[in-house]
Amino acid sequence: MSYAIQWVRSLIFNGLMYLVMPIVGLIYLPWAIVSPRGAIAGCHKYCDVVLWIAKWLIGLKVEYRGTPPTDEVMIAAKHQSFFDVLAIYNAVPRGKFIMKSILKYAPVIGWFGLRIGCVPVDRGKRGAAISKMLSDVKAGAALPGQLIIYPQGTRVAPGESRPYKKGTGALYQELGQPCVPVATNIGMFWPKRGVYRRPGTAVVAFLDPIPPGLSTIEFMAQIEKVIEDVSNALNEEVQR
Length: 240
Fold this sequence. Notes:
This protein is an alpha/beta fold. The chain has a single domain (61-239), classed as Glycerol-3-phosphate (1)-acyltransferase (3-Layer(aba) Sandwich). 50% of the residues lie in helices and 15% in strands. The protein has a 7-stranded mixed beta sheet, sandwiched between helices. α1 (3-34) runs antiparallel to α2 (36-58). The longest helix has 32 residues, at 3-34.
């Protein structure tokens, strides 16, 4: 398939991805208003539809490796594009994200995100937001599930380097839960910016859980090494 044809397919896919969002949102809205389970079901349905369209229209499939967690854990994931958000969320039963505060004002995404238990965080105020989240959990206000955080705090293209932020370590200490690192090479197919989506099989790898009890320094060193090493190895698989 020529680059031009794939670019056009990618453009159509991008439009469909955003067109489907309000449609699914409206279908699941009544149930989501009544119960958070409706919002969770709606988010999973949206991910199902987008992943299916990606496979059919642009030839981009997702392969999962490892075992996605189903109990209450923290997930620390590599973030390369919007597609890894959908792929990771769809692999776990009750995912909820530490998300940028501005997203709570986004149509559909914002309301559904809050409904499924996502925690908005102001950049520069992460510590206060984490403290509020923990108090909500203790008070029973937050939904149980898999708390997903991106330790680098933003999308990072394959081959680029950004530091892992201390908030992930603070969250690990406060929650006292296992942490499941997640590596991916999705950025090799879905770049941080631009229209073009490359066909192929992107990998999302759920790695061995890190048990609670490590010091913050030990934990941060361990998740950075394992996530970066495995993500780099997955990138190399695509380049072979």
